[in-house]
User: Fold this.
Amino acid sequence: MRRFVIIVITALCVATACTSTSGSSTSSASSISTSAEPVATLANGQPLPEGCTGTARAAQTVAFMAGGRAWAMNPSTHRLTCLFTTSDPGPFAWGPQGDRVLLGDFQIQGLDPAAPTLGALSPPPVTFGWGHPIGLAVVYTSTASGEPQKRFTDDGHVEALPGLPAGRYVQIAYHPSGLALGFILERNDRGSIWISTNEGQHPQRLVFAQPGTTFTSIAFSPDGTQLWWTAEHSGVPVLHRMDLGNRTTFTDVWQGSKGTSAQDLQIAPDGILKSVNEGTTCADRHALVISGGSATRAMPLEARPTWALGWLDDSTLLVGAGNCDQPTELFAVNAHVGGTAVALVTGVEQASPRTVVQDAPTSVPAPGSADIQAPPGGVG
Assistant:
C-alpha cells in the first residue's frame, strides 16, 4: 500500500482571488562556499578579469559568485560579464526572467532600470518562491513555523497571506502561470502537499504522508499541467507525478536506492528531463538525470561529489563538483550525450542558472469533475 492519501478537491479559483501580479516557482541556487577563500579561475586556467562593469546578455545563463563579485557566463562561448559586487550573496536565487536576484538578508538586486533593487528585510526568509512569469513578488516564510508572506518587488511592501494553513513550510513553488502556489507543509510530524491561489486563498490539500514518509521537494511542470515531487518512503527515495486536471491519483515515476535521499527536484524547460541530488551526506552526493523512469548520474566519471544546480536549456544541466571543504568547479553537462561535461570555472562560492522563462501558461488546470471519488483504502 502506498504511503500517500489523495484528497479530491474542487476547481482552483483562478479568476477572482487569483491575480497575475505575482510570479512562479523559485529559481534554484546552491550554497557552495568552502572553508578556505577560493581563487576562481576559468577553464583555460586564466583568472577572472579585474573590475566589474558590464551588461549581462541573455545567452549568459550561468551565474556565479567569486571573490565578492557576481558573474554571468555564456556556457557555449565562455564569454563573461561581471554584474555587481556584494559581500552577502545569500541564496543567490534568480527570478524567472534572469534580471533580478535574491541575495542575503532578503536584498534584491536588479540588473537594469526596469528590474527592482530593494534593501534588506528582517528576518530573512527560511524558504521562498519567486513569482512567475516575471518575478513581481516573492512568497516566503521568515521562520520555520512562520506565516507565509508576500514581498512585492515594485516598492518592497509586504503583505501577509493569512488564508494558508499553519505549520512548517518546507518548500514553496509558484505555478508557472503565476496564478497558484504549491507548497510542502509539515505539522504534527506529518508532511502534506497543498495548492492555493497566488494570494493564499482556497488552500487545498492534495496529498498527505503516512508514518515513515517525508516530502523533500516539489516542482510544477513548465506547461503547468502537472505537479511533481520527491518523497522518501522508509528510506527509499521516489519521484511522483500528479496531473492537476485530475488530482485523484498520482504516478510513481522513479525509485532510488534504499538508504539514500533525493531532493532538489528540477525540471528542464521542455518538461522532459528532470534532475535530483541523491545521497545521504555531502560527501556521497551525486547529481542524477531522470528520463522516463530511469536515472543516470549526470557525471558518471566524476569521482568527487556532484550536485545539480538547474537547467540551462532543455538538455544542458549546470552541475557543481568538488569535495565539501574545497573550492567548487562548475560544469555544463549535456544530459542527452552520456554526461558529456564542459568545464566552465573553478573556485566559485555560489552558482545558479540565470535563464528566462518563456511561453508560460496562462491558467491552472482544474479537476475534471467535482464528483470524482478518491480511490478506496487511502491508496493513490
Observations:
- Residues 1-29+91-269 form a domain with the Neuraminidase fold (CATH 2.120.10.30).
- The chain has two domains: 1-29+91-269, 32-87+284-354.
- The mean pLDDT is 87.
